[in-house]
Write a structure and sequence with these properties.
The protein is built from 6 helices and 6 strands; from the N terminus they run ββααβαβαβαβα. With 217 residues, it is an alpha/beta fold.
Length: 217
């Protein structure tokens, strides 16, 4: 079992949360995490770049001038790639960079990325995140009390509340909804900041998915 410290807003440890590492994959799996990271990165690429080749230009195919005797370089049609506005020699084609990955592997990669954060002590767990009104200053104070000095992913149950509005103006902070937590976002940030209730709900959902996987086998 891994014990994750639970802190209050002032940075004082008030409790611990025990997490079964077997639920998160047992051990950190670099190969799986890399595959998931590359997949997420590839799937974000648009792949819409395209240029015309010679067959797609509207120039006449008439030879510009005779082959010899003019003193100029040999020329064919005006659509050649050597001429201005001609077709490209190696034209780009619109393509999809999407990569496939089984659902069970994706879910395992998400859990394993969380395990990697827990092993490295990079999960900052709060007893609760509750703001009566938006306050960037108050959120900055929480980051300072928890010694968060690098990029941080804040996972909230509601990304439209006062807590999210308090964090959205901080340059090193990225917001996500807890049920959308994934390996790409976890690996792209040094710390994960989440409250106990939200993380517990995520772990409960992960346990249900693990149970579904066992029944499937």
């Amino acid at each position: 079992m891994i014990e994750i410290p639970i802190h209050d807003a002032k940075g004082k440890q008030v409790d611990t949360l025990k997490v079964d590492e077997q639920l998160l994959g047992g051990e950190v799996r670099p190969g799986l995490l890399k595959q998931a990271y590359v997949r997420y990165h590839a799937n974000r690429r648009i792949g819409s770049a395209a240029t015309r080749n010679r067959s797609q230009t509207s120039f006449s195919t008439r030879k510009l001038y005779r082959q010899k005797g003019t003193g100029n370089a040999r020329r064919g049609s005006a659509g050649t790639n050597l001429m201005r506005s001609g077709g490209h020699a190696f034209a780009k084609r619109a393509r999809s960079f999407r990569q496939a990955m089984p659902v069970k592997m994706r879910r395992l990669a998400n859990r394993n990325a969380l395990l990697a954060k827990a092993v490295d002590g990079e999960i900052k767990l709060l007893d609760k995140i509750d703001f009566k009104k938006p306050s960037t200053q108050k959120f900055n104070a929480i980051l300072k009390n928890l010694n968060i000095d690098r990029s941080c992913l804040v996972a909230l149950s509601n990304v439209t509340g006062h807590e999210a509005r308090s964090a959205q103006n901080i340059e090193t902070i990225s917001l996500t909804q807890i049920d959308r937590l994934n390996a790409f976002d976890l690996l792209n940030h040094r710390y994960l900041l989440v409250d106990k209730a939200s993380l517990q709900s995520w772990l409960d959902r992960a346990k249900e998915q693990a149970g579904e996987r066992k029944e499937g086998h």
